[in-house]
Amino acid sequence: MAEQKANKNTVLYDDDSQRLSLFIVIVNNGLASIYKNCFINECNCHYVLTLQGRGTATKEMYRMLGLTQVKKDIIIAITPKSNLNELFYRTREQFIVSKRTKGVAFSIDLTSIINLKAYKYFMYGIEEDKYGK
């Protein structure tokens, strides 16, 4: 029984640099393309998704966080954990540019992925291997 539990908790790679994380940024509506270009071009994120959202915080919270709009763009990037420092740095640079580009950024570790093909896609993008598969 203990052996079955151990098998369920295994990870694809034990090396932290090979693990994946979700990197999430919430910014004002219309600014997602700036961040997406940075993530894809400079930080080698192969899977970046943009969603539209609407903030539900009170006006006091918006003032406290320095946010001005209710409509938001939510950018989700799947990236190797080793890229997180660079992503946070690049995002912080964008936040500093102007008051309009302020937002919230955070990451979540991915603890499991369905299969090896999905992992390779998220880690390396779409690449054909030497057998064309």
Give a description of the structure:
The protein has a four-stranded antiparallel beta sheet. The protein has five helices and four strands. It has a single domain (18-124), classed as Alpha-Beta Plaits, CATH 3.30.70.120. The chain is an alpha+beta fold and 133 residues long.
Helix share, percent: 25-40%
Largest sheet: 4 strands, antiparallel
The arrangement of helices and strands along the chain is HEHEHEHEH
Radius of gyration: 18 Å
Tally of individual domains: 1
Helix tally?
A: 5
> Which spans have pLDDT < 50 for at least 5 consecutive residues?
1-11
Name the quaternary structure: single chain
For the record, the CATH architecture stands as: 2-Layer Sandwich
Spatially, the strands of the biggest sheet line up as 2-3-1-4
Strand percentage: 25-35%
Task: Characterize the overall form.
Answer: elongated
